[in-house]
Design goal:
Layout (H helix, E strand, L loop, with lengths): L2 H8 L3 H9 L6 E2 L5 E2 L3 H14 L4 H7 L3 E3 L4 E3 L2 H33 L3 H10 L3
Antiparallel strand pairs: 1-2, 3-4
């Protein structure tokens, strides 16, 4: 199938599919005309890529973990022993980022809470709240 068909079937924009190829996540064959040719399995691969991106992994990490995952239909299952350690590290990185963002939000909430009532009313009115 050509890239437009893969895009239609996966809901992923053509430029992202090309990017996935540049990152080594997809490996389309090239026709004599230069068009990319994808196989049926690529539909599932794109869905796995999207799941991993939604889980917070970057494409560099996905390149290393993708070959070690099996799709059971309702979840991705690690199949390589070393993969679990990598996934734990990624989860720790994401947890740290969440903690940092929570601390930032708490500090911002403290600043907002210190505003005088009349300033708060005017600001909320301007925001339509």
């Amino acid at each position: 199938m050509r890239i437009g068909e893969l895009s239609r079937r996966t809901g992923v924009a053509v430029h992202l599919l090309r990017y996935y190829g540049q990152q080594g996540l997809l490996h389309p064959q090239r026709r004599a005309s230069g068009y990319r040719e994808y196989v049926e399995e690529d539909v599932a691969v794109v869905r796995r890529i999207r799941s991993l991106l939604a889980a917070g992994l970057n494409t560099s990490t996905i390149t290393t973990v993708l070959p070690c995952l099996r799709d059971t239909g309702d979840r991705l299952v690690p199949t390589c022993p070393d993969l679990l350690a990598d996934l734990h590290q990624e989860r720790d990185r994401i947890a740290q980022a969440i903690g940092d963002l929570q601390a930032s939000m708490d500090a911002l909430n403290d600043v907002i809470a210190a505003a005088p009532a009349d300033v708060t009313r005017r600001a909320l009115t301007a925001l339509g709240r």
